[in-house]
Predict the structure.
Amino acid sequence: MSLTRRRFIEAASLTLLAGAACPIARAQSLSASDQGTFSAEDVAVLDGVSEETFHALIGERFAVLQANRRLEYMTLLSVASPAAPNLESRLPRAGAPSRPPGQAIHSFSLRFQTTGNSLGQGTYTFTNESLGSFPLFIVPGGPGMNPKSYTATFSLLAP
């Protein structure tokens, strides 16, 4: 059986389709797993959260988990607001969802400290006796900092 142009194109097309389908199938199986995803109940803990919520927790320890495995404990060091109002947050951006005129964004940041293992930037499950479990995106404070610090920033629509 000789290889014709038609058979070559068919075989090449099928090879390309099979190559494209494998990563898609892998991504779907990962997204269906518990790792890296949070349910609406997990995020609901943060409904109505404010600076005051976290001011009361300064000095408390939070367990940091990933895939239901405790990685570290972190202590909440401080809660801070930006020094000046963020004027940019009042301006609409191209492609940004619209919000009612005059509605501002209130932001604040949390600073955590740990003396244990270094964690990479990412979303982890934080657990605290007062708040329960909730997802939080943290950013490391910088290389060589000891004790290690991490920052989480909240940007909330003002009521």
